[in-house]
Design goal:
- The strands form seven sheets. Strands 12, 16, 18, 19, 20, 22, 23 and 24 form an eight-stranded mixed beta sheet that branches.
- Helix 8 packs across helix 9.
- The longest helix has 26 residues.
- 41% of the residues lie in helices and 19% in strands.
- By secondary structure, it is α/β, with parallel strands linked by helices.
């Protein structure tokens, strides 16, 4: 009898849970992951992070679910990119419009530090709570660039770098000791555009006049009581007080990602159903497989992996359209070109390709995007940077100061051309510039072809200049402003699919399965079979931050992070 009673009670509790009001939670303390893990190491390191696609899917479902009464989001100190923040803000605004209660809670928006972007996210919610000991670091937008030329010269290092053209400023880190006029112009416009977006969002969300928001930015940062007085925060409360006020008795708490997964598990698509393929391309672009360093070198978009995913989606008869999610500052020209080719082939096969840009889709990130049918970007996405740079450091003098003697034996006039021990000869420098011209001409030509522009107009928009998504749309480098959900909806419409047509993520494979050897070069998982784990990860990360050509000639400058 006791066993029977236990079973009955358990079933009763499960039924009660299914019918009880739901309060969804989202904890952003660890940030969000952009897409599925590309390798076992990334899978392990991202276990504690919710995935953006799951969060967006869950919030979309919650809008029509009568059980969902509220959303509580803890905004932590782990910064999110501006594009991702705008994705979340849009989802929250739509949830509010559906009549759901939305609450943002933070222990602090920047603890003695900048908190403009986290607070910008919070301003989309109906109620904003701050821990009594917290602050609101609403201080505006700052983009810094460090110049190493003079410091390197003191050490005996000279950089020989060429760039195409004046706005391709990654090389300036090593070749200048100040911002050039073009550099300052483009950076100033980015800061201005981002500030316009943040001011407009905070003003709308908090019911303030935009001029007043500008004034508050100049007055920040604020301690908690000042933030309440200024109308930036509703109340100062601890977490338990926020939950006590928001969660009614009998309501069930559930993380948004779990809520999204529970919905998917109950309605798996029919095996033969028409679908939209979602291909994620994240990180620096390089030849070979996607992966990362176990020592923290960061993720990379491998051309073999992404090309295989696009190829697999193109050949899958059930796939009627492709959404290519790009979040990359660029990298290898050759790898970018290989991915570009697969986008072209997908379109030639009659499958619409919609690019959804994340925080970044610049330089090589724009290269892989420009052949798509439609480019969708967030207003705060950084894109463009259509240009190239390349060269090398010359460290012979430094080595001499350290007592290092370098000798070499070569066969061929230019065999030692890329040695950092000696400078380029005049003839070798001509070859470097011919290489830069070829890449730039190819890049601009493909921009013109993909975007329906004259080559002259494409060059005018190029020259290495970085644009926000809002300005890129005005210039014709992007088509629509929006996020991943908008891109998926557009792909369904282009393919003539219903609004709830399923989405399949490519590559469709667990990271551990990629360790097995492929059967052939046409095995659709062949490019995913071997994981690349570089032992030099920290050095690679440092090189990327400094804009070194180790990642390839199509790279965005290293100041792009907006906090």
């Amino acid at each position: 009898m006791d066993a029977t009673r236990t079973i009955v009670e358990t079933v009763g509790k499960l039924r009660q849970r299914r019918t009880a009001p739901l309060v969804l939670e989202l904890d952003l303390t660890e940030g969000l992951s952009e897409g599925p893990p590309a390798d076992p190491v990334t899978a392990l390191l991202s276990m504690r992070k919710a995935r953006l696609t799951e969060v967006l899917s869950g919030l979309r479902r919650a809008r029509k679910d009568p059980r969902v009464t509220a959303l509580i989001v803890k905004i932590g100190g782990n910064p999110l990119g501006l594009g991702m923040v705008q994705e979340l803000r849009t989802a929250v605004v739509k949830l509010r419009a559906a009549g759901k209660h939305t609450v943002a809670f933070a222990e602090t928006f920047g603890e003695f530090g900048a908190g403009t972007v986290p607070y910008y996210l919070a301003s989309a919610f109906e109620r904003v709570y701050l821990q009594p000991s917290g602050d609101v670091g609403l201080t505006g937008v700052a983009l810094e660039q460090r110049f190493l030329r003079d410091a390197l010269a003191k050490a005996g290092v000279e950089y020989q770098l060429g760039q195409r053209h004046e706005y391709k400023t990654a090389a300036n880190t090593f070749t200048q000791n100040h911002m050039t006029d073009a550099h300052r112009e483009s950076t100033g416009r980015i800061a201005e555009s981002v500030t316009e977006q943040i001011v407009a969002g905070i003003a709308e969300g908090r019911g303030l006049d935009p001029k007043r928001v500008r004034e508050l930015i100049d007055q920040g940062p604020f301690i908690g009581s000042e933030a309440v007085e200024a109308g930036l925060v509703d109340e100062l409360k601890y977490r338990d007080e926020v939950y006590a006020e928001t969660v009614d008795e009998g309501a069930h708490l559930l993380y948004v990602s779990r809520y999204a997964k529970s919905a998917l598990s109950g309605r798996l698509p029919h095996p033969g159903a028409a679908t939209v393929a979602l291909v994620h391309g994240t990180g620096m672009i390089r030849l070979g497989r996607s992966g990362r360093s176990p020592l923290g070198g960061g993720g990379a978009m491998g051309s073999d992996t992404i090309c295989a995913a696009l190829r697999s989606a193109r050949r899958d008869e059930k796939v009627k359209a492709i959404v290519f999610r790009v979040d990359s500052p660029g990298g290898s020209y050759v790898a970018s070109d290989a991915i570009w080719r697969e986008v072209v082939l997908a379109r030639q096969a009659g499958k619409p390709v919609i690019v959804s840009m994340g925080d970044l889709a610049a330089s090589g990130g724009y290269f892989v995007s420009m052949a798509a049918d439609v480019i969708v970007a967030q207003p705060g996405t950084l894109t463009g940077s259509i240009g190239v740079f390349g060269g090398k450091p010359v460290v012979g003098e430094l080595l001499g100061k350290l007592g290092v003697v370098t000798e070499s034996v070569t066969e061929g006039a230019n065999a030692g051309m890329f040695s950092p021990s000696t400078a380029f000869s005049d003839e070798q420098w001509q070859r470097v510039n011919a290489w830069l011209d070829r890449i730039y001409d190819d890049f601009v030509g493909k921009v013109a072809q993909g975007r329906g522009l004259s080559k002259e107009r494409a060059h005018e928009l190029a020259r290495g200049r970085v644009w926000t998504g809002a300005d890129a749309r005005t210039a014709g480098l992007a088509d629509e402003l929006g996020g991943l959900e908008d891109a998926l909806a557009l792909a369904r419409r282009r393919a003539g699919l219903p609004g709830d047509a399923p989405v399949r993520t490519y590559p469709r494979m667990h990271p551990l399965e990629r360790l097995r050897p492929p059967e052939s070069s046409e095995d659709r998982s062949a490019a995913l079979a071997r994981v690349r784990l570089e032992a030099w990860g920290p050095l690679a990360r440092m090189a990327g931050q400094l804009g070194l050509p180790a990642y390839g000639p199509l790279v965005l400058p290293g100041w792009w992070t907006i906090r």
